[in-house]
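[step 3/7] fold_predict: job queued, chain A
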Amino acid sequence: MHLSASYDDPSVVPPHVRDRYEWIETGSAAAILKATSPGEFADLVKVLDDFALRPDSWLIKGGNKGDIAAALDERFRALGWLETRIDVEVTGHFITDFATHGELGDALPGLEHEHATTSVYSEGFKVDNHKGRMIVDIEWNAKDGNLDRDLAAYRSWYEHGLINGAVIITKDRAPLLELAREVWANYQESLPVDRRDPTLPIDLKTPTTTSFDRAVMRVNRQGAGTCPVLIIGVGPAAWDGSPFTGVSGD
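[step 4/7] structure written:
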């Protein structure tokens, strides 16, 4: 595993897309995925280019699949990506050549070899978006242990030759917390005094949910092994500049 920065190459990721997100990768993941899964990588770039962080969709209460994650998933669905469970079956072939076993082989006339098989079936889990040989998971507000699970699975699937690489899109928590405070304060000032509430409607203080910094920590622990993995953090640069109005957005 080595950290790289192929996403900085303007021929891989257009600069106007590159500059709106935070990035980290292993094994030149962006360049590898662009070369080996060009259509799927183009879809990823399109989704990132079209997406904007709108406070009316972002600053609302939501679970693991809040409005932001759902909005990103919908964009991938429109391009033919599907939620998919990936199971793996490993079959072992045991072939014994008795002719190489001296007296044992002589004691078994007519038996030149023995062939036995055994298999292990492992049920996997669902990934958010799968197309071809590429995976994109949206880990917006889940328990950060999901990142360990994701990276271990990517490593296994890559080593079994099932995927070319994987992408995780997540929030860049600390910078978004500062932006949320600013946007929320501006909204509160627009309300009558008796309706104001300084408490943010979303929790960005908890460091144990999935976020860019937690993903970077896992990547640096080499959880993905040799699998090319691209982590993309959504932060203030993805904000569309609109205020929070209290009206739920799309």
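[step 5/7] annotate
The mean pLDDT is 89.
The CA atoms of residues 20 and 237 lie 5 Å apart.
exit 0
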